[in-house]
Amino acid sequence: MAAKKGKKAAKKPAAKKAPARKPMKKAVAKKPAKKAAKRKPNAAFMKPMTPSSTLAAVVGSSPMPRTEVTSKLWGYIKKNNLQDKMNRRMINADDKLKDVFGGKKQVSMFEMTKLVAKHLK
Prior knowledge:
By secondary structure, the protein is mainly alpha-helical.
């Protein structure tokens, strides 16, 4: 048989070389996890403040930090069942709290802290 002229033999594609790998880093020993540090209270919140006479009728007249004032106020609210039954975020004021809340019958718990701050010196 006669060889066909004009056709070139198909060349195989050249094999691709794998990219050169970088040398591996040495394994570093992990440090043991540190224990979570206890949160330090903000010094401004821990500064003893004197409550006004209207607030003192509810929480006491001795100087105390704001955090303690808030805790005692919530204790008074829970003891006298002053949280609204339907919307627990609202505080119903009795005679003592009405003076602290600026004459309002009902305030939200978020507004309460703002109103109480006015009674601390």
